[in-house]
Amino acid sequence: xxxxxxxxxxxxxxxxxxxxxxxxxxxxxxxxxxxxxxxxxxxxxxxxxxxxxxxxxxxxxxxxxxxxxxxxxxxxxxxxxxxxxxxxxxxxxxxxxxxxxxxxxxxxxxxxxxxxxxxxxxxxxxxxxxxxxxxxxxxxxxxxxxxxxxxxxxxxxxxxxxxxxxxxxxxxxxxxxxxxxxxxxxxxxxxxxxxxxxxxxxxxxxxxxxxxxxxxxxxxxxxxxxxxxxxxxxxxxxxxxxxxxxxxxxxxxxxxxxxxxxxxxxxxxxxxxxxxxxxxxxxxxxxxxxxxxxxxxxxxxxxxxxxxxxxxxxxxxxxxxxxxxxxxxxxxxxxxxxxxxxxxxxxxxx
Length: 350
Known about the structure:
The chain is built from 10 helices and 10 strands. It folds into 2 domains: 2-118 and 273-349, no CATH class; 123-210, PDZ domain (Pdz3 Domain). The chain has helices at residues 2-29, 74-78, 91-120, 135-138, 158-167, 214-240, 252-266, 271-294, 301-314, 320-349; strands at 34-50, 53-68, 122-130, 146-150, 153-154, 174-180, 183-189, 192-194, 199-201, 204-210.
């Protein structure tokens, strides 16, 4: 478990660093003064000053921040901020600075996806097996067919077929388009319910293998990242609609457990396999961090972007004290949520 905790901290540092680095780089490009750049929360373990920015590493691996001069707007009322303060930058420069954090998470995820695709290749939506007597067999699907579309959604990866099947919790009919001998065919498949696993199945096992060349690596890295983005959005939707419960949500403890399980599985196959598995987890978490921060909620980047859009439309900012109160309420709610998730993790895994 000690190794897994270290691996979790490394993954955490990579994805948080990429996020905050996005804010930092774009802020510097726009002449915005960065007061402090730090990773982690709580007491400072060590720090150093370079130029007009303080760089810090803090004790708790639960976040990070890129603090801009005058960001909360209070100093502006006191007349204490310099020309390079955040409120003095043009509204679209501030918008770009805030948006750059999530954007860098997606760029980091894409780079990781390229490495994974280049090294491991990808699973294609080629049908490997059709279950005897299944609805897919009745519809005429055969091993070797390439699934290209399900319910109007283009399919590029074998994992997409599995995900669509798993999320079809009501057994709704699926319009499946497949390619055989260069020709496309479309059939309707009504999934069959399995009482043992309590889910519906199409009766198809899809997942060929493709070792990607350079152009395919760029292409399928995008498809891989897109798959994780869609999975994250679908998970949020299912959580909101009650299809997922609090036991399906993982916080820091749950992620450490996930890292530990992946490490135990990959360790017998060597260091390279461990690294690739950790990179896959980092890819997923980087996409999650990017999406979560874009949600239009107070205290998150998405909430700040909403206020900046309002300012751009109105031609003047929302009064700093009002925006500050909204973000403060959002931050308090976020802290409460983090405590609840941590408690849920502890009760679930211990």
